[in-house]
Amino acid sequence: MICESKNINKNPRYKIIKYKNEFLMVDVTSSWIFFFIPMLNWGVPKKYAKISQSEFEELNTFTPKNSSSAGWIAGGGSVLLAVLTRKYIQLLNIQVNQIAVNILC
């Protein structure tokens, strides 16, 4: 094998290439257009930087965050509420006269 390619955890933009005991950090997507047309990566020269092994080990370790599930609970609760109240929604259809609308607005 000529070289080894490794991904940096939680960072898809950069890749680490180990070549002859050197670590090279390559900027894979230097522009936003590479996300939409990834075949352009094959023909465009890449920028890279040499890093030491200790820097590589520091990059490769990450601390996981305590992700709260409040967003998932709120989203699931709102979908559940919409499903459960679907058959009662016609009760909220109220006729309003023009004067009341003008007063409220």
From TrEMBL:
<keyword id="KW-0812">Transmembrane</keyword>
<dbReference type="Pfam" id="PF04276">
    <property type="entry name" value="DUF443"/>
</dbReference>
<keyword id="KW-1133">Transmembrane helix</keyword>
<keyword id="KW-0472">Membrane</keyword>
<protein>
    <submittedName>
        <fullName>DUF443 family protein</fullName>
    </submittedName>
</protein>
<feature type="transmembrane region" description="Helical">
    <location>
        <begin position="69"/>
        <end position="89"/>
    </location>
</feature>
<feature type="transmembrane region" description="Helical">
    <location>
        <begin position="23"/>
        <end position="44"/>
    </location>
</feature>
<dbReference type="InterPro" id="IPR005915">
    <property type="entry name" value="Tandem_5TM"/>
</dbReference>
